[in-house]
């Protein structure tokens, strides 16, 4: 009996690490980085009951210093409830301190390839997702806000919609911050690399008629407020459709907890509109 009790206790401990209610931890293989990367997948309650149903997916990227548990464990603890209410799968990968680049100065960091290709392929293979960019969105906060737009703009064939909350959408005013120079080299010595790895310059490459559905949000007291405002104004000049929201608030999880509700609604409407258009 004591042996059985120990086995049962070990199983409970393992379950506590591997899954949180409808949140399942996975190890996604990355051939590009020669390792496995952790991710949490948040499933609707109906996922097990209705084996014939597939779901749209929203990829949520964490900020600098976070990991794959940040969104469901700190920023938005009720993601499982939202997944059930909205009928959406949430995918929260570990992006390390990568800024979601394939880093030119740090070859072991190939997180653009991982998230936009390897992770999406893994999720689509192992979970009942709707396998279409019209049912796939990506967003995040801070470093993850940069990642959401960086990946969404550059991989429109993968993500039909993208967003950012308090994102570092122009990295160049912050050359000594958040380990970016480890991935890009010193800005003073590598200005071209910094210019080519910042979201605001990706706007020039967007065809307004083929732009992803885009939503951007930043608080007025955020240290990234000015660069978000500059991105918004540039998108307006380029006639690129987007939603832009700003309100009182700083660079905090409380702000992102609120902001993500609006972004989920935006993505849900995008999914529904795409589904309706497919039926016409």
Mean pLDDT: 91
The largest sheet, given as strand count, sense and whether it forms a barrel, is: 9 strands, mixed
Order of strands across the main sheet? 1-2-3-5-4-6-7-8-9
Helix proportion? 40-55%
CA-CA gap between termini = 62 Å
What overall form do the CA principal axes indicate?
A: globular
Number of helices: 11
The secondary structure category is alpha/beta
Order of helices and strands: HEEEHEHHEHEHEHHHEHEH
The number of distinct β-strands equals 9
Strand content: 15-25%
Low-confidence sequence ranges: 1-21
Rg, alpha carbons:
19 Å
Give me a quick take on this structure.
The chain is α/β, with parallel strands linked by helices. It has eleven helices and nine strands.
Which terms would index this structure?
280 residues; alpha/beta; nine-stranded mixed beta sheet
Commentary on this structure:
The protein has helices spanning 2-18, 46-49, 70-75, 79-86, 111-126, 143-154, 180-184, 191-196, 199-202, 225-237, 253-279; strands at 19-20, 23-30, 35-42, 57-61, 89-93, 136-140, 161-165, 213-219, 243-247. The protein is built from eleven helices and nine strands. It is globular. It has 280 residues and is an alpha/beta fold.
